[in-house]
């Protein structure tokens, strides 16, 4: 089983950075989480106008806010179950907003649809497994977690757009990878955990 490339480890790398920023941010973490939606809308606007570089710069800011809210919640002792739920829900909304902007600007709706479809399945695979057994972010080492998906979009889209038909091939490859690697990998993981259990 292929181990995760980024998601299970990025927290260990970047967590100290956000922990050092958190004391200077006296804003409720839920506000930070909510602001990321508006930042994502700005990024989608630039994507929709085919300004791939500026769109990705703003999308990176949305991702930064998404990582910062957790650090702020921990430092100011404002961690709540509602905050965690809100963060997870808005994460998916941000992802959808960005992909919509990319689809609008590129016209590559089939690829964007498959990426979004696969992203939903990837997220749901874990959410549904959690209804049957205990899962967490550490012991779920699979490819294409949200942080990886966002990084591939933010970094890959402006690079691919520099080449003729590059965006077409890049989004097609992402769609195929998400759907044919990420989804079966999670289903296999759940099968190993649950498949042989008696209901």
SSE blueprint:
Blueprint: H1 7-21, H2 29-48, H3 52-75, H4 81-106, H5 109-130, H6 146-160, H7 166-194
Helix pairs in contact: 1-3, 2-3, 2-4, 3-4, 3-6, 4-5, 5-7, 6-7
Describe it for me?
This protein has one domain (7-192): Four Helix Bundle (Hemerythrin (Met), subunit A). 76% of the residues lie in helices and 0% in strands. The chain contains seven helices and no strands. The two termini are 26 Å apart. The relative contact order is 0.15. Mean pLDDT is 88; it is low at 1-5.
Structural class: mainly alpha
Find the CATH topology.
Four Helix Bundle (Hemerythrin (Met), subunit A)
CATH class: Mainly Alpha
Whole-number total of structural domains = 1
Query: Count the helices. How many?
Result: 7
Beta fraction of the residues? under 5%
Q: Whole-Å distance between the termini?
A: 26 Å
Rg for CA atoms: 17 Å
Which residues form runs of ≥5 with pLDDT under 50?
1-5
Query: What helical percentage do the residues reach?
Result: over 70%
The CATH homology group name: CDP-alcohol phosphotransferase transmembrane (TM) domain
Order of helices and strands: HHHHHHH
**Using DSSP, what is the number of strands?**
0
Rounded mean pLDDT score? 88
CATH architecture: Up-down Bundle
Largest β sheet strand count, sense and barrel closure: none
């Amino acid at each position: 089983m292929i181990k995760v490339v980024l998601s299970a480890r990025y927290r260990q790398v970047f967590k100290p950075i956000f922990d050092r920023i958190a004391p200077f941010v006296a804003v409720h973490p839920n506000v930070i989480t909510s602001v990321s939606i508006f930042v994502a809308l700005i990024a989608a606007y630039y994507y929709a106008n085919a300004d791939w570089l500026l769109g990705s710069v703003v999308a990176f800011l949305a991702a930064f806010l998404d990582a910062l809210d957790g650090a702020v919640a921990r430092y100011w002792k404002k961690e709540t179950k509602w905050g965690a739920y809100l963060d997870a829900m808005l994460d998916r909304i941000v992802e959808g907003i960005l992909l919509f902007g990319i689809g609008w600007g590129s016209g590559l709706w089939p690829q964007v649809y498959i990426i979004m479809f696969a992203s939903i399945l990837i997220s749901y695979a874990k959410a549904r497994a959690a209804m049957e057994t205990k899962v967490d972010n550490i012991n779920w080492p699979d490819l294409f977690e949200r942080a990886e998906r966002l990084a591939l979009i933010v970094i890959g889209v402006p690079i691919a757009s520099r080449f003729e038909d590059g965006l077409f091939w890049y989004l097609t490859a992402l769609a195929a990878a998400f759907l044919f690697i990420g989804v079966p990998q999670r289903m296999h993981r759940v099968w190993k955990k649950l498949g042989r259990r008696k209901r």
